[in-house]
């Protein structure tokens, strides 16, 4: 497929600082966990994980993250080509986005860097298959969890029936208790 843009490498680029997304402590920990989980699942190599940690290290409090590939390569102890492959892999997994940043240089435009955005919250958690090499199927694990959930529900309904209480009465009682607890907390916080 040919591109009709005179400079296709500048398509989607922007002038200015680019997107910013600051991460709190929990989101940083989640990003580290996702890197580790993807490495254990062999979707990322150990060097790719080091590049992800280097990106996290370069993320400022304001959310600015625009290091060069060479900077990331020196932080991770690899080559700039490995950084390009790692960022591409993380982008494909959905845990990294970037926007190409350009500046005017006379009558031309030049790329300065990429504005990276780490995305730990948008990615669902990786479900471990439980096997050493991941040979177990995910559907079997989910169906067993669903079976346990159904068993717990049935057990609770049997206990309520033995006490002569309907499910609607139990829900109403829980709602009343939640209202009392909430009122007590509001009173405590307003005092």
- The H/E string reads EHHHHEEHH
- CATH level 1 class label of the largest domain: Mainly Alpha
Name the CATH homologous superfamily of the largest domain. Answer: Winged helix-like DNA-binding domain superfamily/Winged helix DNA-binding domain
The count of strands amounts to 3
End-to-end Cα distance, whole Å, is 67 Å
In this structure, how is the largest beta sheet organized? 3 strands, mixed
Shape: elongated
Helix share, percent: 40-55%
Provide the residue-averaged pLDDT.
Answer: 76
Structural class: alpha+beta
Question: How many alpha or pi helices?
Answer: 6
Please give a structural write-up.
53% of the residues lie in helices and 12% in strands. The protein is of the alpha+beta class and 191 residues long. A hairpin with a 2-residue loop joins strand 2 and strand 3. It is built from six helices and three strands; from the N terminus they run E-H-H-H-H-E-E-H-H. It is elongated, with a radius of gyration of 25 Å. The chain folds into two domains: 109 residues, Winged helix-like DNA-binding domain superfamily/Winged helix DNA-binding domain (Arc Repressor Mutant, subunit A, Orthogonal Bundle), CATH 1.10.10; 53 residues, no CATH class. Helix 1 runs antiparallel to helix 2, helix 2 packs across helix 3 and helix 3 packs across helix 4. It has a three-stranded mixed β-sheet.
């Amino acid at each position: 497929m040919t591109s009709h843009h005179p400079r296709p490498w500048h398509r989607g680029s922007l002038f200015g600082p680019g997107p910013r997304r600051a991460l709190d402590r929990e989101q940083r920990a989640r990003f580290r966990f996702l890197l580790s989980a993807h490495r254990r699942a062999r979707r990322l190599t150990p060097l790719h994980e080091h590049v992800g940690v280097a990106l996290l290290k370069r993320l400022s409090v304001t959310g600015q993250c625009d290091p060069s590939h060479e900077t990331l390569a020196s932080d991770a102890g690899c080559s700039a080509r490995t950084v390009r492959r790692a960022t591409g892999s993380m982008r494909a997994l959905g845990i990294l986005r970037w926007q190409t940043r350009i500046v005017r240089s006379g009558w031309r435009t030049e790329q300065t860097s990429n504005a990276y955005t780490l995305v730990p919250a948008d990615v669902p958690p990786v479900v471990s298959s439980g096997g050493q090499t991941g040979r177990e199927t995910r559907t079997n694990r989910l169906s067993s969890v669903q079976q346990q959930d159904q068993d717990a529900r049935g057990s609770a309904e049997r206990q309520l029936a033995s006490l002569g209480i309907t499910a609607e009465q139990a829900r109403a009682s829980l709602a009343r208790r939640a209202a009392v607890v909430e009122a007590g907390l509001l009173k405590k916080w307003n005092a």
